[in-house]
Amino acid sequence: MITYEKAAKLLRYPLRRLLFLLCLGFGGAVLSATLVRFAPGYGAQERELDPRWSSQSIEALRQEQPLHEGLPMFYLRYVSALAHGDFGESDSLKRPVRDLLRQRLPVTGNSVVRGLAVAWLAAAMLGSLGLASRSWLYEASSTAFSSLFLSLPSAVVAMLAVYLRTPVFWAIGVVVFPRLHRYIRSLLVRSYGQPHVLAARARGLRSGAIFWRHVLPIAAPPLLALLGVSFAIAFGAAIPIEALCDSPGLGQLAWQAALSRDLPLIVNVTLVVCLVMLAANSLADLAGRVFAGSTQ
Amino acid sequence: MTLPQKVAAIILCLIFVLMVFATIFVPAPYARQFRDVPNAGPSAVHLLGTDALGRDCLSRLLYGTRVSLLLAPAAALLSTLIAALLGSAAGFLGGWFERIVLAVTDLSLALPWLFLLLTVRAMLPLDVPPMVSVLIAFLMMGLLGWQASVRVICAAARGVRDSDFLLLARSSGCTPTRLLLHHVAPNLRPLFYAQFWISIPLFILTEANLSILGLGVMEPMPSWGNLLRGFEDFSALAANPSRLGPLILLVIVVMCFQLVLPSQEVTQ
């Protein structure tokens, strides 16, 4: 009975999050439609400035534009197109936003996942080494090292990556690493300082057993939450890094869209990134809950 | 305060003093071009050399320090004010207002900060005078950078809401506004200060990123961000390493803030 209730509770959470994501997607679509509709220059065409076109022709061209349809009709058409995966057309690149997203998202996704793998590996290794050695010199040098990286703007890391000819994912890893290292280190110190861990150590349990049975169950839920947050940090870092390293991903696309004030593109890219981030955070949160539930 | 924290605080004070009295030390206005000596190395006239347009690097560094170190605290003040207002009201009032504020906060926190800034920047004109670009950067960071602080302040205000002294004040007939301003806010004041100081290094780094991407402070107005744009020319940097000045100063200031504020764990 208790297991059934627990399973129902666990199932209720993802359903609620899914509903929230759907509502957010709808709200985001309405918001992006508003931003696109009321942006300066919406519906204007270069052909209207061509002196060879007569006034009647220009008027006919204007009548063809969606500018003249009513506002409710515009929203209905925009949201329905979005629901069918039609994100409209980029003003600056003159290509469907859907095609651009399909082309660029895998590039950024690949760099972000590999960069996160590098950052998590380095942060976990340095955090564990610090805990094992417990030497003040190691602690001081690793803290100084991570503080130095934390103080560098992502764009400067990107310039260094260009200079050193390193792949984009290394630059993303370097930006994410110090944030993870600081948190993982303090989390491990806190977990190893728990009274029941001290008692287990006093009873002579091996370090591996202490870690797997006593430290990991406490540390795993916040670490999984951190995994969700680290996705947002990595996606944020991807903008300057891809822009300066000339990597054809979403970050570079967003930067180019901002520079050319291409609202249909930037708004839809941001909407998609927002949904990806929320899905990643929800998955990380759900994994944390499942883990906490299974270890209780 | 530990010894490293004291040293960091002294360094920060010295840099702020240098920033205030920058006009006394600058050899030339930041936009003045010495056209006969472009890309010059350090000399008695130009202590840090000149850039590709012949502008004195030391003057630009000192003025840029002033812009960055005024912009970031000003934006931090605005964002802390918004966070204090929203967070304490949400925590104190509770109910649907708290739920809405926290939902909006969670939503904003889920979105990478730079994507949000880029979207807002794309809606504003790009071809603007330098002073207007500084104002836009200040308003963008100040108006969009309150989310993380709201969560912390709201949680603290929720704790104050159930306290005995507030119950006593409420039973004495205090209005909600008076309760908020005279009883809740003074108890949260240390938290407001902490959030203000934590936001400064974050905004310094954000301004640098935006300006390097050409979406922050516009030329010829110098800031640490647009001075760092010169790093793209590695040959000029190798010929005149003193151009690393803005980066060194930025790293020192952000590291000093981190030392003074050890509680800051994850910054975006």
Q: Show the largest interface.
A: A-B, 46 and 39 residues
What separation lies between the terminal Cα atoms of chain A?
16 Å
Arithmetic mean pLDDT of chain B: 88
Q: Helical amount among residues of chain B, as a percent range?
A: over 70%
Number of helical elements of chain A: 11
How many β-strand stretches of chain A?
Answer: 0
| Rg over C-alpha atoms of chain B, rounded to the nearest angstrom | 22 Å
On the 0-100 scale, what is the average pLDDT of chain A?
84
Task: List segments of chain B where confidence is low: pLDDT < 50 over at least 5 consecutive residues.
Answer: 264-268
Oligomer status: heterodimer
Structural shape of chain B: elongated
Topology as H/E string of chain A? HHHHHHHHHHH
Sheet-strand content of chain B, in percent, reads under 5%
Give the helix/strand class of chain A. mainly alpha
Structural class of chain B: mainly alpha
Report helical residue fraction of chain A. over 70%
H/E element sequence of chain B: HHHHHHHHHHHH
Rg on CA atoms of chain A, Å: 25 Å
